[in-house]
Specification:
Blueprint: E1 2-6, E2 9-13, E3 21-22, H1 23-30, H2 36-44, E4 48-50, E5 53-54, E6 60-61, E7 66-70, E8 89-92, E9 96-101, H3 118-125, E10 149-155, H4 158-169, E11 174-182, E12 189-193, E13 195-198, E14 206-209, E15 217-225, E16 229-236, H5 243-250, H6 273-285, E17 291-299, E18 306-310, H7 315-326
Parallel strand pairs: 10-17
Antiparallel strand pairs: 1-2, 2-7, 3-6, 4-5, 4-7, 8-9, 9-10, 11-16, 11-17, 12-15, 13-14, 15-16, 17-18
Length: 328
């Protein structure tokens, strides 16, 4: 059972039946807006106690353990500061930047993440960023989740930003995602249509509804099948928060490793001990949802030329795929 003591203090009582899991991975998957790196820093600084004592990141939590975490409160800065954070820039001109976001980095400052974001890095890289939105979102035309990797477009001025926003609103921007999903699909090609709305049980997550929320439409195509998972290409007709993750979970093929929408549970083959062992090993390879924004295509607002960019899978996803292939 998880109990939130205050905004920045957490207490976890490990219940019976919980499999052994590294402490840093357990906490990174259990605390929203955290990452394995941040958790390891908290552990090193003594802000994490297991049964009243400090512990190492590789400690394996077991039933009846009590884990207490204190996260130091960082006051919100008056303005978003430039930070020297490396950027993987795929393309840049006087109007736009296309970059490849690594997993684990938040796109723009928000509650609990005022520093270390993509916007902090962009402000260090250039002073030319659109302020069409609030300064904390300078240049940001669209977002992807913190633990989703992949391509993003950044605008350098307000007019370009507005024109790109229109393309997103018109659904004319081509976006292809690659995901590792649980299970074998009955149909190799298909679509999921269902409104996305906040869950009434937990306002931090989203669910499919046919009576409320925003229309959402996802196309999928299976690229390769493994024993208990599939490599899937996904295209978005709409762009709702957590859309792919929610839609894949809704059709019982959650994104592998997704801690929020069922991707860290054994969805298929739970009764087979050999699969359970292999899944445990694979989940130790990737601490996030196996989802990557692989490509993006759009019309450059200034030149009116069609641009298309592609990217490689990040190492953690590639490692999972290699492991799946080796035992296929």
């Amino acid at each position: 059972m998880t109990k939130l003591i205050s905004e920045k203090k957490f207490r976890f009582e490990i219940t019976e039946g919980k499999k052994k899991e590294r402490l840093d991975l357990f906490l990174a998957n259990s605390i929203e807006n955290s990452s394995r790196t941040k958790i390891q820093k908290l552990l090193k600084a003594g802000f994490v106690l297991v049964n009243g004592k400090t512990a190492k990141p590789n400690y394996k939590v077991i039933p009846k353990d009590v884990v207490e975490v204190t996260i130091p409160v960082t006051p919100r800065p008056e303005k978003t500061e430039a930070e020297d954070i490396p950027l993987n820039i795929v393309y840049e001109d006087k109007d736009i930047i296309v970059l490849n976001k690594p997993p684990g980095i938040v796109v723009h400052p928000s509650l609990g993440n005022y520093t270390g974001t993509l916007v902090n890095a962009l402000l260090h890289h250039t002073k030319e960023l659109s302020l069409l939105n609030e300064p904390a979102r300078a240049g940001i035309v669209h977002r992807i989740d913190k633990d989703t990797s992949g391509l993003l477009i950044v605008a350098k001025d307000e007019w370009v930003h507005a024109q790109l926003a229109k393309q997103f609103a018109n659904h004319s921007i081509e976006r292809t995602y690659i995901a590792i999903c649980w299970g074998i699909f009955k149909e190799h090609k298909g679509e999921v249509i269902g409104n996305i709305t906040r869950s009434k049980k937990d306002r931090k997550i989203f669910t499919v509804s046919f009576s409320e929320g925003k229309h959402a439409h996802t196309f999928y195509e299976v690229i390769e099948e493994f024993e208990f998972a599939s490599l899937v290409k996904l295209n978005l007709k709409t762009g709702r928060t957590h859309q792919i993750r929610v839609h894949m979970s809704y059709i019982n093929h959650p994104v592998f490793g997704d801690p929020t929408y069922g991707g860290r549970k054994i969805v298929y083959g739970a009764s087979l001990p050999k699969i359970k062992n292999r899944v445990d090993n694979l989940l130790s390879v990737i601490s996030r949802q196996a989802l990557h924004a692989m490509s993006i295509g759009f019309v450059h607002p200034r030149s009116n030329k069609k641009l298309y960019f592609d990217s490689s899978l990040p190492a953690d996803m590639q490692n999972v795929i290699d492991e799946l292939k080796s035992s296929n």
